[in-house]
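Protocol step 4 of 6: structure prediction from sequence.
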Amino acid sequence: MTSRRSARNKIVANGRKPLTACPEMCCFCFDVLIGHVCKVEMPRNSLKFPNEEYPLFVSWKLLPDKKLRGCMGTFSAIKLHYGLREYALTSSLKDNRFTPVTFEEIPRLQCSVSLLTNFEGASNYMDWKVGIHGIRIEFFNEKGHKKTATYLPEVAHEQGWSHVQAIDSLLRKGGYKGSITTAVRESIKVTRYESEKVIISYEEYMLMRQRPVY
């Protein structure tokens, strides 16, 4: 069992300013999802995390194997109170790679919230650090249509990918079906970014929910 303190220790710091991400954000996402799936009105107490504007992503995984069940977000800065409510449901119910999360799965869920920061244009497809940066690519597919795709900062590290493997996987994720050559990689536009990330499990959520966390 993981304590509330250890949940807080999972926040990824960028070292530039005090952290905004906190476990209460994941608790709020659980409240929103459970209220929707169970068709119950969850408590509407004052939210005790800031309502600043951030680009953000909400992810859900199934424990114990940490199988992804949904991940969606926005690169537009959005008010946290609205954005977390919106993407708690969008990521768990409308990610078209997966079927919607079910009531039976909720006790096995792990929720993570990533607030995206420090966006910078990369000089080339190798100009980012695995485990530090997330990457967003823009490219044109074989039909000349502009496409985008992203991986959050932890993805390449968790998969054990090199820069090239991550870029190639991201091109496929974005729908590129042609042969991936060095010329193709050099043609893409890469934006790198960092994130503040916090993670809690359903078990941790239930423990925290017994206290006035909002």
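Step 5 (inspection) to follow. The chain has a mean pLDDT of 90.
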